[in-house]
Design a protein that fits this description.
Elements (H helix, E strand, L loop, with lengths): L3 H16 L2 H8 L6 H7 L18
Length: 60
């Protein structure tokens, strides 16, 4: 990490990993792509007006 904030985040995550990061464990257990057809229909933000790129529906 090149910034003090980045260093602090990295150190904090190391402590979380030692405690057991349950969210990181879920990543290997869930097929997140199975949600894409369901969530994709609910999230409609595909305009041609420009601006910030759309966030991935599964992440939302």
């Amino acid at each position: 990490m090149k910034t003090l904030i980045g260093f602090g985040q990295k150190e904090a995550y190391k402590r979380v990993e030692q405690l057991g990061d349950r969210l990181a464990e879920i990543k290997s257990l869930m097929d997140w792509e199975a949600f894409r057809p369901i969530v994709g229909d609910m999230y409609d933000n595909r305009s041609e007006r420009g601006g910030r790129p759309n966030i991935d529906e599964v992440v939302m």
